[in-house]
Design brief:
The complex is a heterodimer. Chain A is of the alpha/beta class. Helices cover 53% and strands 10% of the residues of chain A. Chain A has a 5-stranded mixed β-sheet with strand order 2-1-3-5-4, with helices on both faces. Classes of the chains: A alpha/beta, B mainly alpha.
Chain lengths: 257, 348
């Protein structure tokens, strides 16, 4: 029981982050209960909100739902809370009838300022960036894929080993490129593929080992982060030659033996 | 085919066809609006996609057959809608004019904010590593002309392995189908540039319908409601788990669309159908919404009956009508069936 309650609390805290929206929701609920509870729409919204909250926090229902959805994503149950509609409902109910006239009460300025603040908040949230490829994958991924495809031999399978950051987007950009493993080793062919993944994602990569494992997995290309003073001897001894660099990544091609 | 033609095709398959195919579902409602048609159309199309994709996966059919079937079925529904529209076109045009004239300044502010969000989503990029499965499944399906037969992470065949968590919620295959229909537009472009503004519009249309319900006679408050909802979403980066954040950064993924649009849609439909003495929409819409949730994400299979179940219990308490409860229960059948299959067959 204590375990489930701890898990509920952890998920609750994860979901609300800094808690600002939880405070806003609480204020909205208090206002609606205090001043607008006679409205049918308010009653319906609040009763549903409370019922869905009960489902989330009650250890019995939480335990059953957790069994179905899995422990790691239990926080997604909070998606059923109508947080935005309830806060917006309270906000829309708040102004008195006499104050609601947009132009006469000077609200035009307030709302236009709000639009600007919202736009600013969105653009500076750190969630968005510009890319120079239509597929909107990180540009270095697109550049690595292009380099690989330009250097591939016609009619032969292109198999690329790359670190987790690159591997996550390669097949989003171009599914003709085959990989020995996917994001976080998902879809790995076998243990050696997983060893290759570990070697290529290592903080201090052993390039000889990477090349050896990649050759074993018949990778025609390797993309791996290399230092500025990188010496390609170890890779070359395994048949891989540097064909170009993209940011910190070196792209190697296996030459026919 | 150049990008402009693909853009026009995208508008056709993602806006015209949904809006038209929703009309037959609402034809008994004498005062339906274009917005309601658009939403009903998406409910129909998502349910249709779920119904078509699952048997075609089990029959190991190629993607192009699915594309043809989807195009035929949705095209037929759209034609039916246009046929139904004949008698209502004049009335709808009049309603639109009246709505535009009667809209409050708050509504226009909200619209500016929403269009701005749509532009940001269309122009800028957000990198999400979950695309390694969701979008790559679509790119792989298009490239190999198959449905869930090739592992999107690697490009090798799944063999006997069944991706149990995903096959009941094949939204990436829907992405592949739409990409093929839009002149083979790259699924990543479809997901990252076309889907976000369309689905953003979809989710705000649902919020607008909620506002319309709550403030039926008060255009000013309706406008404030929509504006606040749009503004709140701009500040949803308070955590990476909340529905607003999913809506603002990765709405092209099924689970994000579930959180941003389909759960609010179930909330709205439950208010309008289950909680009303005289349901404002046919119960069928609730059924389709439930099936649509199943298409989007395996979470939808669990969350949809939770939302509907709460409302059904509230309605049972309020109306004391077993018939209403049973009707509502039947609307949960898709998620109950898929839930049982998932928990006791695939997971086992």
């Amino acid at each position: 029981m204590k375990e489930i309650i701890d898990w509920i609390v952890t998920n609750w805290n994860m979901y609300w982050g800094d808690g600002s929206f939880l405070c806003l929701l609480l204020a909205a609920v208090i206002y609606l209960i205090g001043w607008k509870r006679k409205k049918r729409s308010v009653r319906q919204a609040l009763v549903y909100l409370l019922a869905s909250l009960f489902l989330f926090v009650c250890p019995l229902t939480a335990g059953i739902i957790q069994k179905c959805v899995g422990e790691t994503v239990y926080w997604r149950v909070l998606w059923i809370l109508p947080v935005t509609p309830v806060i917006a409902l309270a906000g829309a109910e708040l102004p008195e009838e006499k104050h609601i006239d947009f132009l006469h009460s000077g609200l035009a300025v307030v709302f236009i300022a709000a639009v600007i603040i919202c736009a600013n908040s969105l653009l500076h949230s750190g969630n968005y960036s510009r890319t120079y490829n239509y597929q909107k994958v990180p540009d270095e991924v697109a550049n690595i894929c292009n380099l690989v495809l330009e250097n591939s031999d016609e009619g032969t399978e292109v198999r690329l080993a790359a670190d987790d950051h690159i591997a996550s987007y390669v097949r989003v950009y171009d599914p003709s490129i085959i990989m020995p493993y996917g994001r976080r080793t998902k879809g790995s062919l076998d243990r050696k593929s997983q060893s290759l993944y570990n070697a290529i994602n290592s903080a201090s990569p052993d390039y000889g080992r990477i090349a050896e494992l990649a050759a074993d997995k018949k990778c025609s290309f390797i993309s791996v982060a290399i230092p500025e003073d990188f010496e390609a001897d170890e890779m070359e001894s395994m048949g891989y030659t540097l064909i170009g660099t993209v940011n910190q990544y070196g792209v190697f091609k296996r030459l026919p033996s | 085919m150049n990008l402009i033609i693909k853009g026009i095709l995208s508008g056709f398959w993602l806006i015209i066809v949904p809006a038209a195919s929703g009309i037959p579902l609402l034809r008994k409602n004498p005062r339906y609006t274009p917005g309601e048609c658009f939403l009903a159309g998406y409910l129909f199309l998502f349910a249709l996609a779920e119904i078509l994709i699952l048997p075609m996966y089990y029959l190991r059919m190629p993607l192009h057959v699915l594309v043809q079937l989807y195009a035929a079925a949705s095209g037929l529904a759209a034609l039916c809608g246009i046929f139904c529209l004949r008698k209502q076109a004049g009335r709808l045009a009049g309603d639109i004019k009246r709505s535009v004239r009667g809209a409050s300044p708050y509504f226009w502010c909200a619209l500016i904010l929403i269009i701005m969000q749509m532009c940001i989503l269309a122009v800028y990029a957000h990198f999400d590593a979950d695309d390694a499965f969701y979008v790559a499944t679509a790119t792989t399906a298009v490239q190999t002309d198959s449905i869930f037969l090739v592992n999107p992470y690697t490009g090798f065949s799944y063999g006997d392995y069944v991706p149990s968590r995903y096959i009941l919620s094949p939204f990436p295959i829907f992405l592949a189908v739409i990409s093929r229909l839009c002149g083979d537009l790259h699924p990543a472009i479809m997901a990252h540039t076309v889907f976000p503004p369309v689905f953003q519009m979809l989710s705000y249309m649902i919020l607008y319908q909620i506002g319309r319900r709550w403030f039926r006679e008060d255009a000013m408050r309706r406008g404030i409601f929509l504006f606040l909802a749009a503004a709140l979403n701009c500040f949803s980066a308070y955590s990476i788990y909340n529905a607003g954040n999913f809506q603002m950064i990765r709405i092209w993924q099924g689970k994000a669309l579930l959180a941003a649009a389909f759960i609010p849609m179930l909330f709205f439909l439950s208010l309008a159908v289950v909680m009303e003495e005289q349901p404002e929409y046919p119960w069928l819409l609730l059924f389709l919404a439930n099936a649509g949730c199943c298409l989007l994400s395996s979470m939808g299979i669990i969350l949809a009956p939770l939302v509907q179940g709460i409302f059904l219990l509230l309605a049972l308490f309020r109306f004391r009508s077993l018939k209403r409860f049973l009707k509502g229960f039947l609307c949960c059948v898709p998620s109950l069936v898929f839930g049982v299959i998932y928990l006791f067959v695939l997971k086992a």
